[in-house]
Amino acid sequence: MKEHEMPVVIDNESIFDIYQVYTGGLRNEEELTQKQFVEAVQYAEKLGMPRQNIGLTSGNTRYGAELGVLLIGTDLLPLSERSDNPNSNISWRGTLAHEIVGHKEACEAGRALLTSEDMLMARNGELSKEEVYYKEALDEAQASVRAAKFAPDLSDIERQDLMDDAIARLSKRNIVYKDVTSKLYLEKR
User: Fold this and answer.
1) Phi-psi region of 48 (alpha: psi -120 to 50; beta: other; left: phi over 0)
2) Radius of gyration of the CA atoms of the chain, in A
3) Quick one: which of 112, 17, 5 has its CA closest to 60?
4) Model-level pTM?
5) Could you give the CA distance from residue 114 to residue 132 in angstroms, rounded to a whole number?
6) What are phi and psi of 63, to 5 degrees?
7) Every domain of the chain and the residues it spans
8) 64 partner at 20 to 30 Å CA-CA among 11, 113, 120, 163?
9) How confident is the model at residue 22 (pLDDT cuts 50, 70, 90)?
10) CA torsion 41→45→47→48, rounded to 10°?
């Protein structure tokens, strides 16, 4: 077996739990096959994620900036049928692009809109729940738009699904996309 075919399992009871998001049936919840995981790792590497920083988790797919780790969970895959919920339609490539091109690269550029410092401030009562929700909506929208705009090998439908996701995340918080584009890191990859 080749090195990239060996999944690295990282316990999801960790620093990443503060970002844990459960799908509630909105994305795939069936265990990934080895083939699916290997394809995901290969695409993640193509996007610039070092292999040694990619792990398989029983939790949700996410990028953890604190340790620079990408964790891949069952929600990597969309639902088997199209949904009215834009996030449910994002392909596995779109999901990885959202995490790597969207979150990882924005973090590395110092342009993340919701940081671990924000979460600490929220825990200490220095940042309101509303401020956290606002920053989270902007950060997630930014990640989806960056993925749609910059990730290689995505189809037009995959790019549109990511844009629909961004707009839906903002709309949920009554934020209009055109009103916040200047706050988003969209200038370059």
Assistant:
1) left
2) 16
3) 17
4) 0.87
5) 7
6) -105, 130
7) 3-183
8) 163
9) low
10) 140
